[in-house]
Design goal:
The protein is 22% helix and 30% strand. With 94 residues, the chain is α+β, with helices and mostly antiparallel strands.
């Protein structure tokens, strides 16, 4: 019976996004899987990286906006928009 492995990591903060981590783990596992398969799926704990994971699942498009951070310093931040369902994804952790 072939082995089916679902790989669901969160990000590796400061090094890899959740999607990049899932792909890297799947590539590393593939040679040993034989006839089985490794299926990568990015995950988020709801903090930073959440918007990127959910926007990929919904195929939402990135938007950029001028804002201020928690210390009231000007910055450019991102959010995502999926027009068909009129869904906005705002990651407050960013």
């Amino acid at each position: 019976m072939p082995l089916h492995v679902l790989i669901i990591p969160d990000k590796f903060k400061g090094t890899l996004t959740a999607a990049a981590a899932a792909e890297a783990i799947a590539r590393g596992l593939a040679p040993g899987a034989g006839r089985g398969r490794a299926e990568p799926l990015a995950m988020s704990d709801g903090g930073d990286g959440f918007g990127e994971v959910v926007s990929a699942l919904l195929k939402a498009r990135i938007q950029r906006v001028n804002a201020v951070d928690a210390a009231h310093r000007p910055c450019v931040t991102r959010w995502w928009w999926e027009p068909r369902t009129r869904t906005a994804i705002i990651e407050s952790a960013a």
